[in-house]
Amino acid sequence: MADVIVVGCGPAGISAALYTARAGLGTLIVGKPGGALAKTEKIENYYGFAEPVSGRTLIENGLAQAKRVGAGFVEDEAVGLSWDEVFSVSTASAAVYRAPYVVLATGAQRRTPPIKGVSEFEGRGVSYCAVCDAFFYRKKNVAVLGAGSYALHEAETLLPVVASVTILTDGAEPAAEFPPEMKIEKRKIRELFGGKALEGVRFEDGTALKADGVFIAIGVAGSVDLARKIGAETNGSSITVGADRQTNVPGLYAAGDCTGGLLQISKSVCDGAVAGTSIVKAFHRRKP
């Protein structure tokens, strides 16, 4: 078991890992290099580079630096977060990693799809967390909107509780192997409909699927998605943190774009440094 798990391998996560690893804490980084930063060809406003540097170079150099000071790295997608005396981070490869401290640092990722009715039915049939809300859909028919590993994880959480699970890919091809008991619906979605509560999904061809609930799980699980699973306070698409970058859940920290504010590398690096040093202080306070 690690002392600290950092979810995300961008500037915020790597910065946090550098501080915890150099302080002697067992640090594990879980993430897949990529995202918006990796696609940026020229960065000219980050301190210390006389010439423009690519985002991919920054990511690769950061990972190499973290490994050099002792941090471990697992190239995998985090899809779940839970707590039972310590935190457990589950991944798309079905691995589970445990630690008393976690830093969420996967950047700003907005998961609300531009489908009519999604925002209107939030809390009235639309959910972003299977672990949180599966109980409310016992023996009911639900759908999961998504096509990848994150959607599969949410659907597997729901399956033992609900009457049926339909995977809605909204025109995309499935990117994960869904079990046969889950129906896969690949048609494009026109809207979600209902009255006081969600009643179903209407497709572009005019036909409809009755559903008591739709769980949003598009792409990969972002920091806000994971935070919601464990009851951390969020504000729209941002995680709420204190000055030490700790959430309202003790031991759970967040850093970088997922906390809102200035969406710049410099701010992410600072956030990571604050989170990392805060964890080091907390770790030594709790040691007997």
Give the structure's gist in a few sentences:
The chain has 288 residues and is an alpha/beta fold. It has helices at residues 11-22, 35-38, 55-68, 130-133, 149-158, 223-229, 265-286, and strands at 4-7, 27-31, 72-75, 78-84, 86-91, 96-99, 101-104, 126-127, 141-145, 164-168, 183-185, 189-194, 198-203, 208-210, 213-216, 234-235, 238-239, 252-254.
Strand order within the widest beta sheet: 3-2-1-7-18
Helix and strand sequence: EHEHHEEEEEEHEHEEEEEEHEEEH
Look at the helices and sheets and give the structural class: alpha/beta
Overall shape: it is globular
The strand count comes to 18
Largest sheet: 5 strands, parallel
β-strand percent reads: 25-35%
Gyration radius, in Å: 20 Å
Q: What is the typical, i.e. mean, pLDDT?
A: 91
Number of helices: 7
Written overview of the protein:
This protein has seven helices and 18 strands. 25% of the residues lie in helices and 26% in strands. The chain has helices spanning 11-22, 35-38, 55-68, 130-133, 149-158, 223-229, 265-286; strands at 4-7, 27-31, 72-75, 78-84, 86-91, 96-99, 101-104, 126-127, 141-145, 164-168, 183-185, 189-194, 198-203, 208-210, 213-216, 234-235, 238-239, 252-254. The longest helix has 22 residues, at 265-286. The model has no long low-confidence stretch (mean pLDDT 91). It is globular. A hairpin with a 3-residue loop joins strand 12 and strand 13 (198-203). The protein is α/β, with parallel strands linked by helices and 288 residues long. Strands 3-2-1-7-18 form a five-stranded parallel β-sheet, with helices on both faces. Helix 1 (11-22) runs parallel beside helix 3 (55-68).
